[in-house]
Amino acid sequence: MDMNAPIGQNALDDPKSIVGKPLDRIDGRLKVTGAARYAYEFAQETTTTYGYVVEAAIGKGRIRSIDTRAAERSPGVVLILTHRNTPGQGTGSHHEAHPVLTDANVNYYGQPAAFVVAETFEQARAAAYLVRVDYERVAGKYALESNLKYAGSPPAQEGQPHPDSAVGDFTGAFASAPVQLDVTYTTPLQSHAMMEPHASMAVWEGDKLTLHTANQMLSQGQEAVARTLKMPVENVRLISPFIGGGFGGKLWVNADAILAAIAARQLNRPVKTALTRQQIFHVTTHRSDTVQRIRLGTDRDGRIVAIGHDVFSGNLPSEQSFETAAMQTRTLYVGANRLTRHRLVPLDIPIASSMRAPGEAVGMLALECAMDELAAKLNLDPIDLRIRNEPTEDPEKHIPYSSRHLIACLQEGAKRFGWDKRNPKPGQVADGRWLVGMGVAAASRGNPLRTSKANVRLDPDGILTAKMAMTDIGTGTYTIMTQIAAEMLGLPPDRIRMELGDTRFPEAAGSGGSFGAASAGSALFDACETLRAKLAGAAGMDPKAARFADGNIEAGGRSKRLTDLVGNAGMEADGEIGPGTTLKDFSQQSYGAHFAEVAVDMDTGEIRLRRMLGVFTAGRILNEKTARSQAIGGMVFGIGAALEEGLNLDPRFGHFVNHDLAEYHVPVHADVPVIDAVFLPELDTKSNPLKSKGIGELGISGAGAALANAIYNACGARVRDYPITLDKVLTVLPVQA
Amino acid sequence: MDNDDRRVRVTRRTVLESGTATAALMLTGFPEVALSAEPLSDKAVAPVAVDLQINGQSHTLHLDPRTTLLDALREHLALTGSKKGCDHGQCGACTVLLDGRRINSCLTLAVMHDGQSITTIEGLADGATLHPLQAAFIAHDGCQCGYCTSGQICSAAGMLGESRAGMPSYVTADLAEARPELTDAEIRERMSGNICRCAAYPNIVAAIREAAGTPT
Ligand code: FES
Ligand code: FES
């Protein structure tokens, strides 16, 4: 079905429904016992070989010569791929293809220059360091801020929001607004830093390729592999039942998969490879840094009359995707005059791509701090300012919201967090040598839906098997899908066999962009609806009146065992969901409010988060427990963005200096004190048949801004360049008497 | 060194001998530089026999001496529960117990542990009965993607032992105290060598707090 009309009452609305209950993660046992297998861990033949990537060691230029003689002599080496012996491949944007070792050109630091395959990992690694590459280096453009003059308008593209939007007369309205705020924020280069490195194992049988690979969107990945290797899609199989985190870093097919596939074909032996932690930062994608100018003009009462957001981000000259940081600025607050523009700067550094909440994650670091600055300027409580600017319809598209409870989240959060105890004047609350403050920020994230398919089969043994080429990247997909199927067929969860992570199963949306649960879940819902109708037909009952419970179907006082209806072969059904007109007729976002309390050392500027709360609405919550975990996970990403994370680019060589986990700081246990996430009840009948909205990225959207605003409230330091580290706070920290 | 294409030529010996050369290396950070001058031997590295006691079972392996304990487990014994997140002691995903103490198995060579006993995530449960930490991780949703989980659990098991033995941590207020109370702040500090990018942190702390009260 396509989502063309609001959803009426359905089976999930039953108050006793298992959907929403805090069921323990069904793959939890596999994970806590170490039995869950990830891409690099599949049972291998003794013939399996190991590949190791050699990265280009310049930012831009070409390979003048490459000497592999010593490496070839090295024990155990069976193959060295370079651009000289790698077959031609299909091309496309990084969403569509990932050709490797195509020619002598080096487009970015860390681009694979060779791939060494040996009998063991130790041998491959040792030999990789014997490959000698001689480069001809040319000048490159590396740093965003020093290359803004090269910024251009990215072309409007199918599947990507338009880079520009304008309503009314922004320039005139801003110029004549009685209260004006004009501020520029910067956010740094960031890395997904998921715990499982990108890894692949390639096995060929004739002209058929099987890739065990860490990939979030298998169906799309299957096409990208086929396109790159110039082979029929049906000859490519991707398998990925467990993925050790992705956060966008595994949305696309990466070099590990293609290198392993090409090498395995040449050797006629399985090849497996994992990028080293250090390689991941350059060989795969990252989030672009941004420069963002926000302009807010209000009347004297703080009602926005002009709102503008200009965003600069960078990418390789061959890539068109940009950081969509102004997307929520288009819809979050009122204002008759609006202007948003995204500009893209061509840079010779690795591919910039989606990282958790692309757009919102960094856009709201700017917008939600600007709102805090505006509140201070107007002498208004930041929550009050947001209430004054709450729209009744989407201010740019002039269409209704599918559901929107931002104010409820702000007010409920304020009550739970003790917001009334906040002193609005910065730098007033001391606890020993710590200055303590509170901050708030809105959370808002677009709610997409994608095409997805599912197949279900009920067997005579009473087991319902569901199949989808869907993934679980830690989001809880196995668990919520089990709950949906169990509820729809009236079976206990242990009667559901949920099979995911294989492109042999029906094509699915995959995990990304907060569309996974809604898309795959709705496809499964649709398949279960069809199966229910078939079962009702077999029982001679009206499908509309039939109820499914305890393995039975009941209607009109009659009851039948489902297992008696499916025959010896079992009974199957397919399902499908597609986006439809409700995405155009309704402005769809999930919403929330972040609250943070921080302490700033008045002498050193050291910043400590003390506690944090997120209150969210995201339609139907499919599993209270895993949803809370995911929301907290997003909030902690926000802590990292606010206080710790940033890749340091060497502007001379175009490489990321801190390319490992010792130097790229992500939050650890000690950085995450008391933190909680709460979902308020909501159903969104316009979003999808589950009436749910995406939650995977809502938690990060705005989270860091709440910390930044708390830092300002604590000590009066308004730092506009993320991450807010103590050196930056120190320079603005008021001098102690 | 600025933007020109000048090469720094250093042998491994000068790197060892000269602090200046080391500084130059750190500045450029190009792997080719460090390893270009003297090709390594092209003779195969002779395997070394090592006897590892893993989860109560003896395994005799003949390993390339460069094999880390982590790779010995994962690649030679198919014990893939221990994870490789960084291979550099930076993430904790590979944590195992060596004679009861937690170590990063990526930071040590297998051949250094002849005769020693190693417990991995696969050895924590008692048959079908989960270790209290494992059960608590499920109940409190202490994992999401699961890739850090083995390390978190093994690390927690080791940490609880350290805490019972009275070892203090950075946040222990009174170092002389015989047995500092295992507060949440203590758990967080002591577990900070185990990164969870999914950030199951509050749930992991809750799980450890619960399991700490369970006799093992
Ligand atoms: S893999 Fe050993 S600490 Fe990261
Ligand atoms: S559960 Fe994914 S890194 Fe911890």
Share of helix of chain B, binned: 25-40%
C-alpha Rg of chain B (nearest Å): 21 Å
C-alpha Rg of chain A, in Å? 27 Å
CATH superfamily of the domain at 39-139 and 192-283 in chain A: Aldehyde oxidase/xanthine dehydrogenase, molybdopterin binding domain
Shape of chain B: globular
SSE map:
The complex is a heterodimer of chains A (737) and B (216).
Chain A: H1 28-32, E1 49-55, E2 61-67, H2 69-73, E3 77-81, E4 105-106, E5 112-118, H3 121-128, E6 132-137, E7 164-167, H4 170-176, E8 179-187, E9 199-205, E10 208-213, H5 218-229, E11 236-239, H6 255-267, E12 271-274, H7 277-283, E13 290-298, E14 304-315, E15 337-346, H8 360-378, H9 382-388, H10 406-417, E16 430-431, E17 434-446, E18 452-458, E19 464-467, H11 477-489, E20 496-499, H12 516-539, E21 547-549, E22 552-555, E23 558-561, E24 571-577, H13 582-585, E25 589-601, E26 607-617, H14 624-643, E27 649-650, E28 655-656, E29 674-679, H15 703-715, H16 726-732
Chain B: H1 12-17, H2 19-28, H3 31-35, E1 48-54, E2 57-63, H4 69-76, E3 95-98, E4 101-104, E5 117-119, H5 132-139, H6 149-164, H7 184-190, H8 201-212
Parallel strand pairs in B: 1-5
Antiparallel strand pairs in B: 1-2, 3-4, 3-5
Helix pairs in contact in B: 5-8
Bound molecules: FE2/S2 (inorganic) cluster (2 copies).
One FE2/S2 (inorganic) cluster (FES) sits between chains B (143-149, 196-198, 200) and A (195, 245, 474).
